[in-house]
Amino acid sequence: MTDRSFLDWPFFDESHRTLARDLEAWCQSELTDSPHTNIDAECIDLARRLGAAGWLRYCVPAAYGGVHESLDVRSLALIRETLARHSGLADFVFAMQGLGSGAISLFGSDQQKRDWLPGVALGERIAAFALTEPSSGSDVASMETRAEEDGDGFIVNGVKTYISNGGIANFYVLFARTGEAPGARGVSAFIVEAGADGQDASERIEVIAPHPLATLRFTDMRLPASALLGERGRGFAQAMGTLDVFRTTVGAAALGFARRALSEATQRALARRSMGATLADNAIVQSMLAEMVLDVDASALLVYRAAWVRDLQGRRNSREAALAKLHATDSAQQVIDKAVQIFGGLGVTVGCPVEALYREIRALRIYEGASEVQKVVIARHHLAEFRP
Ligand SMILES: Cc1cc2nc3c(=O)[nH]c(=O)nc-3n(C[C@H](O)[C@H](O)[C@H](O)COP(=O)(O)OP(=O)(O)OC[C@H]3O[C@@H](n4cnc5c(N)ncnc54)[C@H](O)[C@@H]3O)c2cc1C
Fold first, then answer.
1. pTM (predicted TM-score)
2. In whole angstroms, what is the distance from residue 42 CA to residue 216 CA?
């Protein structure tokens, strides 16, 4: 059983409550906890099913097959929270359709949107976001991949790594240095069709919660001028603008994992007998459950506040998104760890739901800005209020 009372909060309108209810019913009938055997095939299948059911329409604007005129962060967050509670892989597939196409929705030309977004909404075109490099992760502005002007197009050389959907994506939004200026101001974004000459996505990376992940190598890859996404030299700002939307939803996914852990741990505590009573009768276990409830509620408030600010106040929500991501991901790690503790030996047994959650949560504290980077953002905003 999962607490649904948050849906009555004033951050939501009736369409969000309907969305949450309908998606919950879909998840219950369509998603299972069964172990993964072929991650690539499962992700492609999940994209098709999420697309056919209409859920991926929330990843693109209405004019290109979507639901809302522009991306509605509350809907994205509600969907990620719900999917994550049922299946980490389904959440991953949904998230990457949004993140991978987000820069096109936000900054693409009408033609680029028409070319790429309807396929994303149907789950027929798999998207990826290629920003990180072997020597530039958190320090995005130091990226080295170059796109050099050549006749009526660009020639790309460089390496991207830890690229989700690498190897199965149909296209990548690629960030590369175009030389207008050093650092953040010399980066542009491109839409790159997968499989082009000069592209190698064969080096796969295995991680503790399996999903498609690869290193991408570009050697003299030719791109037409039409691949340029938005204004040249604005790639860094476009990447950050895209992450501003989706960072809140990473918090929402963490919230979904935490809610699932709380639900599993509570049922286990009520059922498991120890020393003449259930674990749930034990005051120390009750204290753990109370701390978990507190963390879950605090995360939900921060996540949906950040989404609401972005949707309804029409301003950048970097501060609120950083607070939401930091708290929701870090505290979900603690909630899940407590759930494992309440499960005892069963909690670390492969195949137990809290064991999978324990692996699922870890990367969320690293990608789309590590927890420490969120603290830098929060402190910068805070200090700016005090400085003359
Ligand atoms: C599962 C997974 C999926 C990913 N998917 C994608 C993807 O689809 N596309 C993509 O482009 N990238 C992706 N990434 C990459 C991810 O965004 C980077 O791993 C992340 O930005 C951190 O970069 P890094 O790994 O190079 O760590 P580093 O930048 O080397 O940082 C290591 C650690 O140093 C600390 N640190 C770094 N900078 C600071 C700072 N300024 N202040 C204080 N502490 C700091 C933090 O603790 C950080 O965790 C993915 C990563 C993972 C693990």
1. 0.97
2. 21
pLDDT computed for residue 314 by the predictor: 82
Calpha distance 112→239 (Å, rounded): 17
275 backbone φψ class: left, alpha, beta (φ>0; ψ -120 to 50): left
What is residue 316's predicted lDDT score, i.e. its pLDDT?
Answer: 87
- 368 catalytic residue (yes or no): yes
**Separation CA 376–CA 349 (nearest Å):** 37
Nearest to 95 by CA among 71, 127, 70, 61: 127
Q: Cβ distance 329 to 371 under 8 Å?
A: yes
The 3-state DSSP class for residue 251 equals helix
Alpha carbons within 13 angstroms on the beta-carbon side of residue 330 total 15
**Residue 317: which of 387, 243, 379, 371 has the closest Cα?**
243
Write down the catalytic residue from 81, 133, 360, 368.
Answer: 368
Cα 152 to middle of ligand 1, angstroms: 34
Per-residue pLDDT band at 185 (split at 50, 70, 90): very high
Helix (H) / strand (E) element for 387: namely: none
Decide if pLDDT at 1 tops 80.
no
Amino acid at 7: L
Residue 161 pLDDT: 98
Ligand 1, atom nearest to 96 Cα: 8
138 Cα: distance to centroid of ligand 1 (angstroms) = 5
Tens-digit pLDDT profile for residues 222-245: 999 999 999 999 999 999 999 999
The minimum-distance atom of ligand 1 relative to the CA of 140 is 21
Nearest to 90 by CA among 38, 37, 130, 30: 30
Among 199, 102, 119, 207, CA closest to 160: 199
Output the furthest CA–CA distance in the chain (Å, rounded): 80
